[in-house]
Design a protein that fits this description.
The protein is of the alpha/beta class and 223 residues long. It has seven helices and ten strands. The protein binds cytidine-5'-triphosphate (CTP) and magnesium ion.
Length: 223
Amino acid sequence: MRVSGVILAAGRGERFGGQENKALALLCGRPLLYHSLVAFARAGVVDELVVVARPGEEPLVEGALAEVPLPGRVVRGGERRQDSARAGVLAASGELVLIHDAARPLVSPELIRRVVAAARKHGAAVPILPVVDTIRRVDGRGFLRAGQVPREGLVRIQTPQGFRRELILSAYAEAEKRSFLLSDDAAAVLAMGRPVAAVPGDPRNLKITYPEDLALAEGLLGG
Ligand code: CTP
Ligand code: MG
């Protein structure tokens, strides 16, 4: 089964702030996006890369792609994450696609291999982490609500998320038809009533959302 890595870098990075898209912000001297491309190449199980970029940012993305030893192409993203993901999967040629947020530059080759193995077997697989903190709701005024939120069975979901290409494409089509707003790709598959396997995620695989996350990631990369 040929495997395509689809890296999503077409967001605005609004919470990150600044002039440029956070996917191109420098982490240890390289664009955020570049670190994921290297991990995908090192995993040894990925045949091609598709990077989804914002219009106008293609040249920078092409530059990062040129540095990794895998065939790659750049396609334009859309307004919502799910539009970008669908554009990337449509451009991918593998029977298996791994959809990954460029905002997670510390993804490891081991995690990529774990997701590929489970997606080959089950058709859909995502990395999960247990929720260890106490979870509560707050009211709009900065005070805690009294009701308990049971933590049991709750997990946090990461990327890369792996799917048989045909499965995720039909899930996106169904989600589009029903006007679902998807927070991740597994949501589309789950909405169709299809199973998604869970594999152990990686606590280092953090998502860069706010500027201060960059310093955290630099610490992890350096250490
Ligand atoms: N993404 C995308 N296309 C979109 C929206 C998001 O390719 N229309 C990508 C982002 O580039 C990022 C990933 O999806 O790598 C996860 O999204 P998020 O962390 O929310 O990034 P942004 O949407 O860029 O940030 P923000 O929500 O703060 O604007
Ligand atoms: Mg976003």
